[in-house]
Amino acid sequence: MAIKESQPGSELSGSDQEKEIGRLMSILELDLGEENLNLTERVATLSHLKSFIRTPGHAELVFSENVRISLTFGRAQAVSTELTGFLPQGVKILCQHSYDDRFLDSSREALKCLANALLIESKTRQMVVDLGYADKAAIKLRNDNREDELLNSRILFLVSYDKTLDFNELFDNNDLAGSINRNIARHAYYYSNSEKGVSPSSIDTMALSETLKLLFNMAQFYPHRATALSRSIPQILIILSNIQLPSPPLQQPINYLINSLLNLDLDNQSLDEPAANPLFPENDQNHHANRLIAILDASIRQYKEEQLETLGTPLVSLLQKIYVTAPTSVKKHLRASLLPSNDERSQPLGRSDTFASRLLRLSTSPVAPNLRECVSSLMFELSDQNPTSFVRNVGYGFASGFLMSHDIPAPGFSLQGDGLGAASGGIDDAGETLTRVDGQEINPITGQRTDMEPVDTGPEMTDMEKEREAERLFVLFERLKATGLVGVVNPVERALEQGRLEELE
After folding, report:
1. Residue closest to 292 by CA, chosen among 268, 312, 265, 309
2. Percent of the chain whose pLDDT exceeds 90
3. By the 8 A CB rule, do 78 and 63 touch?
4. Are 62 and 49 in contact (CB under 8 A)?
5. CB within 8 Å of 334: residues ≥ 6 apart
6. How confident is the model at residue 16 (pLDDT cuts 50, 70, 90)?
7. Is the pLDDT of residue 194 over 70?
8. How far is CA 475 from CA 102, 128, 469, 492, 504, in A?
């Protein structure tokens, strides 16, 4: 059957688009029964139809009730109609071509049309489920073919939204977890055996990204399936270790590799050999942590804070999860890498250009609230969830917001310098006081060494200025004490009780 040459979908408008879409759908439906197209013609027809399913406006026309399929003379009619059944009819036609395994080239071209439709028109997702094609996608996911992996992973990912499909049936009847794990293992084999500097094809990269997205959704929506999916942890780590980092780094598939680990069993209880956690290999327990830290360091340098709100937050969360499960030596290494060092106390913490300082500054970002919360939570975890260690590690200026927002009482001596002991945190000399580090006095508000604070060389305050400043501080401390979150004694009140204030004439 000869295919009539026609204009690309983007060059048609209005009723002409409806006529052309109807014509193409009629040809495809007739071919299902009569097989009157050869493979080249079928692929060309589907490719042309695909040009209408790339933007929301055109996709609406493809599945519009105003486009009627007419087989009377093998051509389409664009008419107003009350044919409410056409919408699923159009989806059914695409599904039938998509899963006709006799013709793989046209099948994959139809899958592209179907995947685009599911992405752009959310109402088509339930139709695919109702027609029973989700299980066919799960079956086809078993194929050792990267294009099949890409398209069917994307379809299953999309039908995980806006649908009534119970994926438990796909896990139980179609070995969905096994298919996901095997596909990730194939990618891991490629990355571990390919020559350095050799990049995978774009199809390989997209297929891996779609599989990782599907894995994330399955572990998120079906947490009881995370145990089976956690068998992919070693393979994901192999890919992360061997993949060449792009610039900036959090592009696909790097971001999806990181995201996919978030919902998996990182404490290794679900694997066959729980004693050997792949996160902490025996030859270098810090290897994977260092890789993630390097990615985070490069990301902070190359992305704006607004971009890190979306891209960087999962990475910070993953580092916190790893810290929780890490052995003692790795925890110590993570504290040393992520918390400001004592060498940075020559100035207020967060002022230098080190990685730890740049990370700390993100904990007060005004444009990235989720990232801000995650960074503060990471710092608190690195301080073993001890408020005293937290204040000591980052300074009360950075710690106060997180403590107050989580109703965690701040150590009162952080403002008073009472010399009480601090628990272990980023600084390992736990016997020292909050206001001393390595034998040096520090300002608990800024974390800076007091002997390195700038000396005020200006004129001494007059008695009147001192009185006004005392009144201002008195009011501020009373407001702070009224919150009940900080156990602080107003220094002006204490001085008054001790008789150290004198009346000015």
Report:
1. 312
2. 61
3. no
4. yes
5. 289, 319, 322, 323, 326, 382
6. confident
7. yes
8. 81, 65, 10, 10, 19
DSSP classification of residue 53? S
Q: What tokens were used for 114?
A: 């179907």
DSSP helix/strand/coil, 40: helix
pLDDT in tens, 390-427: 999 999 999 999 999 999 988 765 344 444 333 333 44
Residue 71, by phi and psi: left (phi above 0), alpha (psi -120 to 50) or beta? Answer: alpha
Mean pLDDT to the nearest integer, 132-161:
97
How many Å apart are CA 145 and CA 142, to the nearest integer? 9
Query: What sign has the CA pseudo-torsion 26, 31, 34, 38?
Result: positive
Is the peptide bond between 223 and the residue preceding it cis, with omega within 30 degrees of 0? Answer: no
What gap in Å lies between CA 97 and CA 116, rounded to an integer? 15
Q: Residue 363 corresponds to which tokens in the numbers above? A: 């904990």
Mean pLDDT of the region 475-490: 69
As a whole number of Å, the end-to-end CA separation of the chain is 109
Residue 367 and residue 310: Cα distance in Å, rounded? 11
Give the span between the Cα atoms of 112 and 132, in whole angstroms: 18
Question: Could you give the dihedral angle defined by the CA atoms of residues 244, 247, 250 and 256, in that order, rounded to the nearest 10 degrees?
Answer: -40
Tokens standing for 135? 């299980």
Give the C-alpha distances (Å, rounded to integers) separating 246 from 146, 195, 243, 253, 299.
Answer: 22, 17, 9, 10, 11
| pTM strictly above 0.85 | no
